[in-house]
Structures are given as structure tokens and as C-alpha cells.
Amino acid sequence: MDDWRFCGMLRGSAGRFSKLGFETGGIHESYRKNHSSSGWPGFFIRRSFCISSDGMHYVAAENRFLGPEISCELSEEAGDTAVKTALIEGLEIPQKELSGTRWYYDYVDLSGTGERDVLALLSGPWFSGTGGDTLVWLVSDGNGWKVHQTLTLVRSPVIAADLSGNGRKSLIVYRAGGGTRGMWVELDQVQQENDEYLFTTVNDGVKAPDLGTLKGTALFADDMILDQMTGSYKTLG
Description:
Layout: H1 28-35, E1 50-51, E2 58-60, E3 64-66, E4 70-72, H2 81-90, E5 102-108, E6 117-123, E7 133-140, E8 145-154, E9 158-161, E10 170-177, E11 180-187, E12 189-191, E13 197-199, E14 206-207, E15 216-219, H3 224-230
Parallel strand pairs: 4-15
Antiparallel strand pairs: 1-2, 2-3, 5-6, 6-7, 7-8, 9-10, 9-15, 10-11, 11-14, 12-13
């Protein structure tokens, strides 16, 4: 299936794939005829994603499968000016880098208290490398947002899950690069001496639980390769 990429935006609950376009590939016609009239089963699309008709099976980049209890969430479409300003000022991003920095963000209750934080994924020459992109955790400061933590070597999607049972979310990301074998790792929130919480780094992450039985939410479930192809993305510039 390496010739296939999902070329459409998927919204709402899982169901039949009706209005999808695909890049042409060697098996395009036969695959379309075999699957166009019925509910679509889960299938693998290299460097993209899809959802099956039987309960939110999420297929991630590079044929990485997420289990049936992991729902997916697209990032916010509208650009939040306060979030954007906090990113630029808090990270002290040079003006010349803004137009080349793509950003996606989601509002997430990371503490389990009902208060929203922001997770933003930044991609571009200033924030990306072979190991992945930069994830930024922003918290409310009463008047807007402020940068709380940055994590590098992050690949989408980012799974948020309550692994401790106390409502406080852990993050699960796919760690790869540097000649090591790729694996899903768990980033837990660790209480600091000042009582704040910070996630462990990607390099320090431990092997994640079996995703086949995990319940959580896959954030940044956008087709970012398609976004690049079509120019359908936000930049900080």
C-alpha cells in the first residue's frame, strides 16, 4: 500500500468513506471498485491516516497502528492569536523564521481538573530534525498563555491518556531516529520541587503500554503531508 495517500479531510465520527480522493497508484482502480460501495475496513496508508468503519481504528504515519479505543482529534482550524503570540514571544523565535514555521494546536485538559491547556506542534527548519518536531505545552497565566515546557523529537500523532488513573494525562509518542529501532514511548508528568509538573523528555520516555488496549485521544491527527502538498496549513509569519 506504499503508493497510497489519503487526500481528503476526514471529520466527524467514523463511518463510510464517501468523498475521498487518492493520489493515483498502481492499484487505484481495483481498490476503488472493491471498496467504494461498502463500509471501509481499517487499512494502512503509508505516511497518512484513516479511520475504519468499525470503531475509530486509527492508522498513523509509517503504518503505525493505534488501537480501537484511541479516538483521533484534528487540530484547531482557526489560529488563536493569543496562542500564536505566546509561542513567538515565549520561544523568542527570530522574525525571519516565522513564515517557515508551520503550527498546529489543540486545547487539552492535561491536569484532569477541567482546565484547558494548549499543546502546539511546531514544524519547520527552526524546530524540526530527523527525529521529529517540537511540542510546546502552554498554560494560562490569567491574561493569556505562556510557554510552560518544550519537547523535541516529537512525531505526530501525540496520544494523551490517563495512565495513572488520577486524571493527569501522560503523552505517548513514537520515538525513532538516530539509528535506533522505533517504538512508542510514554512521557509521564513528574512533579517538580516547586510543585509544578513537567513531562519526561522523549529520550527519557519508557516503553508505552500496548496501544491495542489503551484508551486515549490521538492529537494532531491531521494529514500533514497533504497539508504541505496543498498549502493548507498555518504559519507563525
